[in-house]
Prior knowledge:
Distance between the termini: 102 Å
Oligomer: single chain
Radius of gyration: 37 Å
Number of helices: 5
Amino acid sequence: xxxxxxxxxxIAAVAGLALTACNKQQPEVEAxxxxxxxxxxxxxxxxxxxxxxxxxxxxxxxxxxxxxxxxNIQKTIAxxxxxxxxxxxxxxxxxxxxxxxxxxxxxIQAGLQKQNNDLQGLQQRLGNExxxxxxxxxxxxHDSINHYLAVYNKDKKYSxxxxxxxxxxxxxxxxxxxxxxxxxxxxxxxxxxxxx
Length: 196
């Protein structure tokens, strides 16, 4: 009889351990599923990109710098183009007056063609340099805004900060607009002026 009681107690103990082990595993599964759920409160804000472009000192300075570079490129290309057109018109006039021998005319025409090719090369090179400068600016602006928003959001704890440009958001309550705060913070954090 003692053996039967011992067996019964042993079976009950094993069953108790199995049930306890199952109960311990159950909460772990529930805890894992809770981590995948979204936060109970979603906190969203947005920033007007157009306002950043017109009010953030860095963006305004860089925009002015790019406009000046673009104007200088256009001026340089226009001057060289006008000089080439003038030389070509002068050449045509002298050819019509028979002022050149055939060899002289061919040499001058080859020189004008080389100047035209050089002008096209210059235009391509300056255009590529300007495009690289624009890409550099866009990256610097993007990095600057992202860095500041990371710092800004440490206290604010937004789930999302969206960019609003034109009408890409169909509706947004002005209560979620943090543009002025962000611009003020960006300008405060900006430490210099660009070389012009």
